[in-house]
């Protein structure tokens, strides 16, 4: 699409690029029955995401003004660096991201808080690490999206830069909760699983375009940026005293 040199606060005509993460095979430590309290930080994010979407629903659910793009930043819309993580294109988009976020959030809270949070230990520090990770992973996804599309006008919306960061974080963990070496074959297989899942997702949502219809463009750049952040910086979000084994 041609670039529009005049950015406006009105809704852009272009269809937004969306983020819908795919995890591939099960990753990280074995699943377990987690205490309900570990779900609370994730539910807080879900409440904010759904509140934002419902707020826009009377206007047709159009949240493109919250989308991140090079054009938006060039015209001073720095708030979109944060807002895009809470914006979604439609009910399918927000539903898919919500399901993945609800599944991964308690696992991250558990890992970031240590085993004592399961037995009733303080949850505050783990929750703060989780929220910081979510925001930084989403920011990493947004920055890579803008870096790859420096003249882009199409806004990207969706939480899955941050959610892909969660997938990257869990990909670094072995069955004992220790960090896998970056050069390990096990981690390479998980990275390849993530890539394959995203290629399949892109293909599925591209089919309507090739058939002459409409659909959603996938912001793969945001997925990649968030995933790499989680993969490379997972160790910084482990609880104090955690001694990760690198193999």
From TrEMBL:
InterPro entries: Peptidase_S54_rhomboid_dom, Rhomboid-like_sf, Rhomboid_protease_S54. It comes from the Bacteria. It is a multi-pass membrane protein. Residues 1-14 have a biased composition (Basic and acidic residues). The keyword Magnesium does not apply. Residues 1-28 are annotated as: Disordered. The keyword Membrane applies. The chain crosses the membrane at residues 38-56, 91-110, 131-148, 154-173, 194-211, 217-238. GO terms for biological process: proteolysis. It is an enzyme of class 3 (hydrolase). Residues 76-238 form the Peptidase S54 rhomboid domain. GO terms for molecular function: peptidase activity. Keywords: Hydrolase, Membrane, Protease, Transmembrane, Transmembrane helix. It is found in: Membrane. Its EC number is 3.4.21.-. Pfam families: Rhomboid (PF01694). Belongs to the peptidase S54 family. This is Rhomboid family intramembrane serine protease. It comes from Alteraurantiacibacter palmitatis.
């Amino acid at each position: 699409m041609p670039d529009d040199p005049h950015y406006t606060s009105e809704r852009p005509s272009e269809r937004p690029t969306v983020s819908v993460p795919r995890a591939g095979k099960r990753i990280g430590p074995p699943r377990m029955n987690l205490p309900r309290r570990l779900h609370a930080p994730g539910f807080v994010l879900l409440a904010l995401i759904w509140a934002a979407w419902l707020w826009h629903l009377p206007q047709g659910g159009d949240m493109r003004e919250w989308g991140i793009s090079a054009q938006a930043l060039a015209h001073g819309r720095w708030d979109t660096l944060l807002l895009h993580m809470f914006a979604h294109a439609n009910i399918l988009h927000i539903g898919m991201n919500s399901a993945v976020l609800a599944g991964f959030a308690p696992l991250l809270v558990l890992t970031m808080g240590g085993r004592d949070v399961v037995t009733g230990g303080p949850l505050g520090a783990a929750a703060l690490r989780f929220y910081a990770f979510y925001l930084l992973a989403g920011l990493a996804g947004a920055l890579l999206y803008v870096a790859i599309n420096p003249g882009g006008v199409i806004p990207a919306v969706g939480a899955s830069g941050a959610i892909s960061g969660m997938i990257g974080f869990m990909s670094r963990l072995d069955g004992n909760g220790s960090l896998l070496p970056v050069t390990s074959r096990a981690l390479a297989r998980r990275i390849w699983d993530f890539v394959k899942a995203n290629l399949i997702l892109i293909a599925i949502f591209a089919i309507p375009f090739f058939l002459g219809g409409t659909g959603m463009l996938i912001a793969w750049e945001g997925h990649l940026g968030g995933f790499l952040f989680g993969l490379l910086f997972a160790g910084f979000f482990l609880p104090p005293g955690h001694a990760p084994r690198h193999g």
